Request: fold
Amino acid sequence: MKLIAESGSTRTEWALIDGDCVTEHIFTEGINPFFQSRREISRSVRLGLPEHFFRKRFEQVFFYGAGCSSPERKGIIGASLVAQFKSPIEVESDLLAAARGLLKNEAGIACILGTGSNSCFYDGKNITRNVRSLGYVLGDEGSGAVLGKLFLADCLKGLAPAALIETFYEKFRISADDALESVYSRPFPNRFLSTFSYFLNEHLDSEYVYDLVSQNLRSFFVRSVTQYDYQNYPIRFVGSVAYNYSSVLHQVAKEFGIVIDNIVESPMNGLVEYHTQNISPISHF
Reply:
């Protein structure tokens, strides 16, 4: 029996696998070692999952997560999980989850557009090149956090259409001071900003919104995708923004001569297939 977890900054998706079948599928809050301590991660896992998960002895626990790009950050997650599950743990980045889930053993370019954004070239086994995402302050083009940041700034400066601003404030019931407090003083500002991308998706028929979304996606192609050998390999996308704005994403891709052959909201189905067909090395946490 294996346990697979794929975590972004907003939510964690868990799949319990027996043989080649998923027996349980659960969502909990996002986990990110950049923003959470080992103790906080352990508490999140313990409170989020059913108690019987902690009474099982897993053959392997595979955890893929945002912020798991360095040995130090992987160690924080690994120590937290091994204390909970008492099982062998493998911790990898959410980018490798995207690559394995989207491409399996095929070479290509894997892209994440969710709360944050990222991309890589994957040779069928390993990530061999990565244009750094840099987070929502310096990068993360195409992401929900950046889309929300741009829209919120336009609202606060009165640059978005008046009717849209009014609808926005009616829906979210927040003041300018509340918004600034959430961005600059409260935990997980990227999660907060990303929630506004769902509001924008409801108003995609607005010329202002369509232009905002398409320009944000265009920036992702210019600053990330075109730095790879994108004309000779498949390009596939995963994430809530990619999935919810798939029609706009296809249109923007055409501007670069790109045909996207797969867009999924979550890499989990692909990861389940990957881990039921591949033997992965065990990390020692």
Summary: Residues 2-98+268-277 form a domain with the Nucleotidyltransferase; domain 5 fold (CATH 3.30.420.40). The radius of gyration is 19 Å. The mean pLDDT is 90.
